[in-house]
Write a structure and sequence with these properties.
CATH topology of the largest domain: Aspartate Aminotransferase, domain 2
Strand order of the largest sheet: 3-9-8-7-6-4-5
Strand content: 15-25%
Distance between the termini: 39 Å
Order of helices and strands: HEEHHHEHEHEHEHEHEEHHHHEHEEEH
Radius of gyration: 21 Å
Number of strands: 13
Number of helices: 15
Largest sheet: 7 strands, mixed
Shape: globular
Number of domains: 2
Helix content: 40-55%
Length: 383
Amino acid sequence: MRFKPALEERRKAGLYRSRKVIQSPQAVEVDLDGRKLLNFCSNDYLGLANHPEVVAAFQEGAARYGVGSGSAHLVCGHSDAHHELEEALAKFTGRDRALLFSTGYMANMGVISALVGRNGEVFEDRLNHASLIDGGLLSRAKFSRYRHADMAQLEALLQKSDREEKLLVTDGVFSMDGDIAPLPEMVSLCEQFGAQLLVDDAHGFGVLGEQGGGCASHFNLTQKKLPMLVGTLGKSFGTFGAFVAGSEELIEYLIQQSRSYIYTTALPPAVAEATLTSLKILQADDWRRERLKKLIGRFRLGARRLGIELMASETPIQPILVGDSAKASAMSERLLKRGIWVGAIRPPTVPKGAARLRVTLSAEHSDDQLDRLLDGLAGAMHG
């Protein structure tokens, strides 16, 4: 068997991954092996994963519906809780309808492969999330990738394409860099070359735009301009699952054609109930987004004063480019010894030579906690 040498090779390259087991709810402070750690690696941007109202809604949902959904949506697993959440998400995104998926990965795989086939071509940013890349490959369409946010190269690829079906796929906020895709330019290129546009706004919903409406709201892009939106519920929403929002015809088509929707068990109705509550909080609590903006500004100013170079990002994702994988891992371990948890992101999640510390901020972080992070980073950077 080749497992042992392959694992050893990963260890030597500084790419070995291991799981840390926490003994507490998701929060800005978590318990790990009897220690309290400051958590700066969660995607719970608004602090809703352990919000008491969201927890209570989940408990009430479980009491009403039980734990499991029992079946796929198209058999007997689609409850009124699912239906109500889909309608609420459609209204939230300003789209005709929304469709729930069990995970963001399944949403992207299922939607892309349903929209384009062997006769089409998929165009993707080189820094797209793995689920978007895998969805493009699964579709069996011609697969073309362009340099990150390089609209000139994308235009050249679209112009050269002779396929009738063209699908442009991008993250809204790039999960490892924290920057925002140039969506208005993409919309213009799609209109010019007759391509469809699909945006996975997993890291934009809740954080960007009016009432947390995400990238579409941030750029004021209607359904006509930006017809297909994917979002995950496990980040700013603080729960679990995913959704696609778009036109009536798109959603009906996906119900008929998306294999990862048709052939899997629906997420538990109690999760849908919890998400309905988190959606209300997400929209109403503008202070959470304002708090994030202040934290981002404070962190970037503090890092600059310490001589720590940050990547260009106006979102809660604030990466520190290190380069070498072993060095990034060592810095993460030094921070952990100081009681601060920041993940080291290494290839293949990021390109070779682009390992980094990925700092993520939550509206629940205090100024004192942020200052502790900055002090810890100053020590970790210099060994």
